[in-house]
Amino acid sequence: MKNLRKTFANDTWVMPYLRKYKGLLILVLFLGFMTFFSGGALMFNSGYLISEAARQPSSIIYIYVPVVLARAFGIARPVFRYIERLTSHNWVLRIVSDFRKKLYQTVESKASAIQRSHQTGDILSILADDIEHIENLYLRTVFPMVIGWLLYIFVVIGVGSLNLVVGLLMLLLLGVITIVMPLASVATNGVREFKQHQIQHEFYTNLTDEVLGLGDWLISGRYDDFINLQKKPIKEIAALRKQDHYFQWWRSFFVQFIVLLTTLVLLVWSAYQFTETKSLANWVAAFALAIFPAVSPFVNMSQGASEWPVYRRSIERVNALDSGDKQPVKQTTLNEPFNELSIDNLTFKYADGDRDVVKNISMDIHPGEKIALLGPSGTGKSTFLKLVVGDLTPSDGQVLVNNQNILNLQDVRSSLFGILDQQPYLFDTTVMNNVRLGNVDATDQQVKDAIAAVDLKDLIESLPDKYDTQVQEAGKRFSGGERQRLSLARILLQDAPIIILDEPTVSLDPITEKKLLDKVFELLHDKTIIWVTHHLAGITHVDQVRFMEHGQFDMQGTPQELYKTQARFRQLYDLDRGKA
Amino acid sequence: MKSLIDKRLFDLPGMKKYAAILGVLIFIQAVAIIAQARALSIAIVNLWNLQSINTIVVPAIVFTVAFMGRHLLTVVENRVLFPFVEKTSGDMREDLMAKIFRLGPAEIDKRGTGNIVTMALEGIDQVQTYLMLVIIKILDMSITPWLILLYVLFLRWEQAIFLFAIFPIIILFMIILGLAAQSKADRQYEGYQRLSNHFVDTLRGLPTLKQLGLSKRYADNVYEVSESYRKETMSTLRIALTSTFALDFFTTLSIAVVAVFLGFDLMDGKVLLLPALTILVLAPEYFLPIRNFANDYHATLNGKNAMSAVMDVLHEPEMTEREILPDLKWEKGSTLKLDQVSLTYPDTKVPTLKDISINIKGMQKIGIIGASGSGKSTLINLIGGFLSPDGKNQISINGHQLPHLNQANWQKNFLYIPQNPYLFHATLADNISFYVSAATSEEINNAAAKAGLSDWIKTLPDGLNTMIGEGARTVSGGQAQRIALARAFLDPSRKVLLFDEPTAHLDIETEASLKNDILPVFNDHLVFFATHRLHWIGEMDYVLVMDHGRLVEQGTPDELAQRNGDYVKLRSEMEAADL
């Protein structure tokens, strides 16, 4: 119970939607109840029907009502069930749409425009799975449980109104199946589920590790080690699963035992209650036959409940996403064209870090200037870029565009900065749609012009579907260089005054790299460019080179100056050209 | 219906024996079901006749025994089957992993890491569930209803005929509706995949959407796509559920019809209450197995698909003849010869490598250069034995003709250092000593020092015992290369080094300092070095120039420079201007 309260203490994922779609929810529960009610009523009625008929009444009129009812319940049960299933799926899918939007917005508020890799894909898939888990929570646990309880209350009150003692007995016996057993299942299974999850996680990590390093395993010839590494978790999981199965089987058996007791109680009760007269005795068969269909929804309640720990993990995970929202900052716009980007004493330290990643950096950048930024990985280049575009809030100092703080310009940021990074993302849609993302109001002709400008016109028009070609997952249809060019076309459409190049050529071969850089600087000659690069190819395109080390600039000047005056720069440049 | 049962199911070792045992158990269970119905009916009829409560004691006891026996048998059936299923699926998982080991990295590239891992984990679990469900349910469906029917026939043939006749009608309707739903459900599943991919796709592309200032607006797009999917789903679900509805409708209505007709017959005195009641109690039991079977349709379908996916991998052809090469120590006089070797990937028509001929002797340093897609990596993978050439016996080592280089004794001789060396989730020391598990910590320390790792190790909290790899301390690209290098220093017996663009994504300063540490390892080794970073060529004594899968030029760097051919052209295209 404490766990339950903890899970829902700050819940924004489950309860609000239960409230939002209250009407449909009640309908689902009603239909579910009616399905089982009709099933029980059919047997109840049939039992009465043949008992009465066996008395051979003088006229068919005596069994007329039961005959009609038998057909009615016979049809009602499947119809209710059919509608119930449609409604519940519809209800859940509605919620899923809301979930997806909400999850998207949550991730969106944390995403950064400067990103070095897309490894987060795995985490995102887990989140997407969590949503499905919550979907199943409703279909497999919440609905069957609530419907079961409604039926439980109905049976207890129904029998209790005829005989208080038997009603109390029903309350106890059926309470064991509908309340005690599910709770016990959650308790036992919760522990096991948790353990199993841990081992499973370990197994997953081991296995992924082994598969990723398969080449090394193969060459090392360590076949036995390779096989043995998984044996332990497999064994442990198998042992747990065995316990789990045995528990389930004996639990079902126990539930059936309670069903038996219920049946016997009802039988004995009918023996006393309904054997006064012949017409009363017709009810014996009615009650006895109704038991099995009536208790059928109770049988699976424990199973639904025992799945709860899986769902709880998902609920907690998505709820944890919400915490730590940033305070909104007042936004403003720029009325005049860009004239200065001023970086003023910029310092930054991560909340959990022990040192400044960026230390007292100052510089002013004016329209048309082109600056290259170099430095080994981990020296704070990408943190610096995040600060410049306002994805991070500096610990000290500020970034100003035309004397306005960048943090106040986030709503108009895409009209200031265009960004080309290592792996620009292409969405799984057509070429046309992908490029148009640069400016959603662009005409087809403008999109085609941008594609022509990056020299992809011939390639795209040679494809069977031309501009409607699907780029496939993550742009797989095209090579690395072509993907960069498509992204460059996007940036041309975006037409922002400042362009940030974040190692756009890191995964390209030198020839492709050279051609791409020539194209970039040719097309963007009138833009301001901040270019983070990992080596010196194409460095002649810029006016200024800055080396960054431990969060600070340590070498700066035009490429020509640096080549003349700095031995280190000269050595690196020659190495890069293959002359060293 | 048939599509649910994989033919290969019956080829599983031990299957027939277990099917026989379970068949007997299910038969006894069906008898218990009949006894239970009979006893309950007797008790009710006695009460209906206003007889004393003593008359129902015996029937109630029989009912209790039959009822509990029936449910106890369910437990017994599961317990009998479970060890078999556990062993079968466990063996399958081991076979799968062993197979993957033999198929090697090429298979992983083909199917994707995530796919393989999911198959070995969840896939096998689904197979287990499938086996647990499907075997018992099929036997239940093929024994229980018929035994009940036989008994009803013995009680009253009219009802037996009705029940018998309704069965094929139900099956027929399920097949008709099932087929209609199936084709739509398949499309539906694709739609589902598309949506799920669309969602992950959108999340992954978030940084790009942010860059373009579209991220806020896109939230509505996510919602709309999901809503249109909901509408699409509901329209197909309506058909899919109709199939379940048909089953439900016919079985429930049949019971109602049986009750009504029994009612009329009772009135006419054609039948007594006891047999009538027994038939009525048995009618739901008659339909129960088929309903159970239909209810688990989806769980079984997933399991069946998982099983065929696993079987597909298990039946994939693998490179045999891995032991042709006798024990080998690569030495100064050793030779490796490729004669007109071509290589075509399975699902392509154009060969990726075409007519490659090279003669390698002793401890050469061989640079492999060419534009992207020229076949450099494929050549390295061929030499590493991860890929098999098209023709037979075009490769030889020390004069031994070989079908491919996936030779256990060749693999003992080399180390492979790719662009991103894989680091295992283990300590730094374990990662370095991956190829030499018996190494002492002193040897590991020395190797780490030679690879230029000492300064970095000093900054680590637990030194060489620090955990690295996925989920632990992250290691930069430069350090990862040094760890791979340390492996080479640690294992002097491996005399062949395969480098596949090891510095491609490193920054120039890291590359410069790494180069100083790599060069010493070249001594006394045969080196294959695929690269497009020009400065490495200076360290090579032989260069292979690749273009579109062909080896267009080979020779020493000086020879090639003088020849003024592809090598010179390639260099000029790559080189930057003077400053």
From TrEMBL, chain A:
UniProt main location, coarse: membrane
GO biological process: cell redox homeostasis; glutathione transmembrane transport
A Gene Ontology cellular-component term: plasma membrane
Membrane topology: Multi-pass membrane protein
Keyword Nucleotide-binding annotated: yes
Alphabetized GO MF terms: ABC-type transporter activity; ATP binding; ATP hydrolysis activity; ATPase-coupled lipid transmembrane transporter activity
Protein name as annotated: Cysteine ABC transporter permease ATP-binding protein CydC
Natural source organism: Lentilactobacillus sunkii DSM 19904
UniProtKB/TrEMBL annotation, chain B:
Entry's transmembrane regions: 21-44, 50-69, 130-154, 160-181, 239-264, 270-288
GO MF terms, alphabetically ordered: ABC-type transporter activity; ATP binding; ATP hydrolysis activity; ATPase-coupled lipid transmembrane transporter activity
ABC transmembrane type-1 domain: residues covered: 20-302
Xref: InterPro entries: AAA+_ATPase (IPR003593), ABC1_TM_dom (IPR011527), ABC1_TM_sf (IPR036640), ABC_transporter-like_ATP-bd (IPR003439), ABC_transporter-like_CS (IPR017871), ABC_transptr_CydD (IPR014216), P-loop_NTPase (IPR027417), Type_1_exporter (IPR039421)
Origin: domain of life: Bacteria
Membrane topology label: Multi-pass membrane protein
Keyword annotations from UniProtKB, A to Z: ATP-binding, Membrane, Nucleotide-binding, Transmembrane, Transmembrane helix
Residue span, ABC transporter domain: 336-573
Matches recorded under SMART domains: AAA
Entry-linked PANTHER family: ATP-BINDING CASSETTE SUB-FAMILY B (PTHR24221), GLUTATHIONE_L-CYSTEINE TRANSPORT SYSTEM ATP-BINDING_PERMEASE PROTEIN CYDC (PTHR24221:SF614)
Name by which UniProt lists this protein: Cysteine ABC transporter permease ATP-binding protein CydD
Organism in which the protein naturally occurs: Lentilactobacillus sunkii DSM 19904
Lineage, broadest ranks: Bacteria, Bacillati, Bacillota, Bacilli, Lactobacillales
